[in-house]
Amino acid sequence: MLSVHNLDVRYGQFRAVQGVSIEITQGDIVSLIGANGAGKSTFLKAIAGALPIYSGRVSFKDQDITDTSSSTRVQQGLSLVPEGRRLFSEMTVEENLLLGKTVQRQGDWDIERIFTTFPNLVKRRHSKTGSLSGGEQQATAIGRALMANPELLILDEVSLGLSPLVVDQVYASIESLRDAGTTILLVEQDLERAITFSQRAICMLEGRIVLDKLTADTHRDEITQAYFGLNKATQQEAS
Amino acid sequence: MINSLVQAILLGGYYALVACGLAFMFQVMRIINLAHGSLAILSAYLVWEITDALALSPFISVLMVLPIMAVVGLLLQRVILERATKGGELLPVLTTFGLAIVIDNLLFQQFGANTRSLAPYLGDLSWDSYEIFGLWVGKLPVIVLLTAIVVIGGLDLVLRFTPLGRQIRATAFDPETAGLVGIDSRKIAGISAAIAMMTVAISGTALGLRGTFDAYAGGPQLLFAFEATIIGGAGSLWGVFMGGIILAIAQSVGALIHPQGFLLGGHLVFLMFLFARIYLNSNVFSLKHWLIKRRHKGDSL
């Protein structure tokens, strides 16, 4: 479904993402793991079209999307929930959700279903999103992406800054998406959660992929070693 | 005194009309369009040409100029502004400054130094007036003021309540995230520029109806629009409307004090607001701030 080949993303001279290749097939649930500055968010933003790609190819549903704009990619069914939620804080929850409908893709998601999925938003419907709690903001951000009826949903650090209880709620709602067959690529700092939630784990270190395995075939220690770059053998194999 | 206040408010309506396009473009696209005044004069000439050639009422001609200026706005965005904004904040200012000079001189070459006016095509309307409580109020300035209210009110409603308005606000607030949500920011910028140029067409016509214009009349219009925008604060269109009226009142008060004081009064108030905006908390300018303050005072008493 999503195919990334030898992707390079640069900030000036700095190579934030170096020669990354991944394949994601329909229905996959993939966790992207890595320390701060490993290039995860840069990688996801480049896939979503928010950052220019220096070299390499990205294709989605067998169509090359390397040079298309982010709005075109949303139109094709690829949505990103950006890190830090990035809501339009001077607009209400409802307005933010309606903006997600801009591309008008056909599908099951509409504004009422969002409010059923995230019941904590109902009484906040007409509040400005700047005044919401972290959990409510995250729910709005996910809801906004769902309004476009994406086939591939990319979630960047959904649990950042949320209390453990709220994280559970957010994951419960993502789980219902997983069960509905949406392909999901997400960044998660909590290893335990990443391993239990997803079928596959990809670990990034200094802009490269150092581990890409099914969660069933790997274990916590191996991921931890890859995370800190302790396992030289794995690193050389991947690069 | 009351008479000059009323006349000032009517003049303020014209300033608000010129300023709203400039403010809209700044709000939505973060571009200060220094060709704003010259484009208004260009549309005034267009209206004049059509009115003269087809023997129409200027009110009909302006309807024909609206789509022309919308296309001009779209081209302006695609051909000039889109490239200029890639070069940083200063480049659009320089580019539009250059564009203003080009437009001014092309108009001068085409139409010469004669001043023109749309007033002769209006017949009686150009000097008709209402008598209200012993004051004579010109019909035409009232029409211009009402037009300003309709244009600004209409833009405000579009921005607040339509999907297009929501997309424009989202793009203005955070273009990158707007793209991630699926908003085509390029399309939105084009539409915004087209809308801004349509208001420019209306303001150019208003100028031609109220008085005279020549090829180099763009500069002062830009100046008034800019001053009204700064006084009112670029954040809201109704603020700009108030800005236009405050500017006109300041000019009229200046003129009462000294025959040469018209422009000076406006400039002084503009500078006062400019420095106040730089050095004071922005809350000072919002109505809510003062209402809450009063309530707090009431509580403590």
TrEMBL record, chain A:
This is ABC transporter ATP-binding protein. It comes from Marinomonas profundimaris. GO terms for biological process: L-amino acid transport. Keywords: Amino-acid transport, ATP-binding, Nucleotide-binding, Transport. Pfam families: ABC_tran. Residues 2-231 form the ABC transporter domain. Belongs to the ABC transporter superfamily. It comes from the Bacteria.
UniProtKB/TrEMBL annotation, chain B:
One of its GO terms (cellular component) is plasma membrane. The keyword Transport applies. It is found in: Cell inner membrane. It is a multi-pass membrane protein. The chain crosses the membrane at residues 6-24, 31-48, 54-76, 88-112, 132-159, 188-209, 229-250, 262-280. Keywords: Amino-acid transport, Cell membrane, Membrane, Transmembrane, Transmembrane helix, Transport. This is ABC transporter permease.
